Amino acid sequence: MAKDKKQPRPKAETPKGFRDYFGAEVTQRTEMLRTIAGVYHRYGFDALESSAVETVEALGKFLPDVDRPNEGVFAWQEAEEGDKKGDWLALRYDMTAPLARVYAQHRNDLPTPYRRYTMGPVWRNEKPGPGRFRQFYQCDADTVGTASMAADAEICAMLADTLEAVGIARGDYLIRVNNRKVLEGVLDFAGISSDDPRRPSVMRTIDKFDKVGEQGVMELLTLGRIDESGAKIDGVLLDDMVAWRIVQYLTQKSVPQMADKSEELGELNARRIASMRQAVGGSKIGNEGVDELEVMARLLTAQGYGTDRIVVDSSVVRGLGYYTGPVFEAELTFEILDEKGRKRQFGSVAGGGRYDDLVKRFTGQEVPATGISIGVDRLLAALRAKGRISDVEQGPVVVTVMDRDRMADYQAMVAELRNADIRAEVYLGNPKNFGNQLKYADRRKSPVAVIAGGDEFDAGKVQIKDLILGAKIAENATLEEWKDRPSQYEVARADLVAKVRAILDGQD
Q1: Which residues fall within 8 angstroms of residue 327, CB to CB, at 6 or more apart?
Q2: Of 133, 243, 335, 373, which is least packed with CB atoms within 10 Å of its CB?
Q3: Which long-range contacts (CB under 8 A, 24 or more apart) does 20-28 make?
Q4: How far is 89 from 74, CA to CA, in rounded Å?
Q5: What's the gap between Cα 331 and its chain centre?
């Protein structure tokens, strides 16, 4: 009789494009989300936690660079119920499409305008790459139900305050603002009408300006270009003069007369807005977009947000198709080293804009809306690159165990430390080898170890070892310095909490 084939053990590995997060990463993200939520709440936004699963129909056709709604998402079909086919469901790919569904579903119970913030993971069924994962955190804030440019200006101001609250210094970031209507006007003025089949390709090419630069966009709009790998990328085949007019707009190379509104808009914004007026010519939608940018610039200047923080910039396009007006992008301007040791700017950590047509899919009526999305993991990576946060989190105080029969006494010690808001734990491994306990404390990055055996208990004492200072002394100190700077202290049992607190305060 043949033996049953033994089932192979499953591989202990994360799925491709996903990763696990440990210790400091989780704690730091939680703290960042708390800080961001504090800023959003201060601006009057309410928290919303929507379902992580939506119907594919509700998500719609707004996935990045794909035409079919279940192409870029993790989707599955429910089982049939009688003659009814099962619904297609998907994990949310962003926080905006779910908001449109929530507002359409609950609009009679929500205030207008409705201001909400939300945070959590989103999922993209896209090809992963270095630093690009299929699951990542977003932190969004949106205002639904008002067409006022004051809402867009407020979102930009709040984003600036948020970046500074989490530790991005002023001068290390720039929030760039444009308007999709202006770009539509530029294309109209350049002779590329809304029904021209080349228009979507032109928009996608413009969105690559930050990556390929002025010359690269010019090549892609005309005959094409050779990329870094040597591959040929086909161009849109625009006439050279038409392509150059678009590039002029992106680079603000038209030369306007000096604007007379520099005081209320900021001189740089005034120049750029005047340049945009030239670029859109007589286009109605283009001039409408320029008017909206002018209102935003005036409101931001009045609140004290100068062009060193928030600036009008014609090169901002934003890739998603649902933007209908102002678009914004937060860029970190400091340099980091890439994996090959080359200097480069850190780049974008947040983006958003106005999307007045998204709720209309559910209600049939246009509902104006605007919002911003922060890439939390990108922002954390930026703070690590600047040395503002460390990858290593300080561990708990470890109460070692010299006598397992006195476990109740050790637990009493750790309870006192915890009640004093000091992170602490009792060693729960095999206490037989004391050296292993200190190795454990070292692996846990513990700042302090508490030591008490029979002699200490009889004398009403405890030994407290400063593990951080001890490591520093062991690295650099001479024997005389070792004697002068002891890293282990004997104190009365009643002084345990006070001494541990003093050591921790001295390590900060």
Answers
A1: 177, 178, 179, 180, 316, 317, 318, 351, 352, 353, 354
A2: 335
A3: 23/393, 24/390, 24/391, 24/392, 24/393, 25/380, 25/391, 27/393, 28/380, 28/389, 28/393
A4: 8
A5: 12
Q: What is the pLDDT of residue 33?
A: 95
The predicted pLDDT at position 95 comes to: 93
Q: Residue 256 has what pLDDT?
A: 53
Query: Is 75 within 8 Å of 333 (Cβ atoms)?
Result: no
Distance, C-alpha 122 to centroid of its chain: 11
pLDDT of residue 103: 95
The fold of 16-147+356-393 is: BirA Bifunctional Protein; domain 2 (3.30.930)
What is the reported pLDDT for 7? Answer: 83
For 66, the token pair is 């794909």
Q: How far apart are CA 283 and CA 181, in angstroms?
A: 10
> Can you say which residues are annotated as belonging to the binding site for L-histidine?
94-96, 124, 138, 142, 318, 322-323
- N- to C-terminal Cα separation, the chain: 70
Give the annotated binding-site residues: 94-96, 124, 138, 142, 318, 322-323
Instruction: In whole angstroms, give the CA distance from residue 490 to residue 501.
Output: 15
- CA–CA separation, 259 and 327 (whole Å): 23
| Beta strand spans in 99-152 (E) | 114-123, 135-144
CB 267 within 8 A of CB 308: no
CATH superfamily of 397-507: Anticodon-binding domain (3.40.50.800)
Query: pLDDT value at position 478?
Result: 52
Ordered mean pLDDT values, 10 residues apiece, the chain (508 residues): 75 92 90 96 97 89 48 85 86 92 95 96 87 90 97 98 95 94 88 84 81 86 83 86 84 60 80 89 93 96 95 81 89 77 80 90 92 92 83 87 94 97 95 89 92 93 88 56 67 95 85
Sequence spans of domains, the chain: 16-147+356-393, 397-507
User: Two tokens at 459?
Assistant: 């004398």
The residue type found at 355 is Y
Angle, CA 115 vertex, CA 147 and CA 381 arms, to 5°: 105
Q: Which of 159, 179, 100 is nearest to 354 (CA)?
A: 179
Q: Is 39 helix (H, G, I), strand (E, B) or coil?
A: helix
pLDDT score at 266: 84
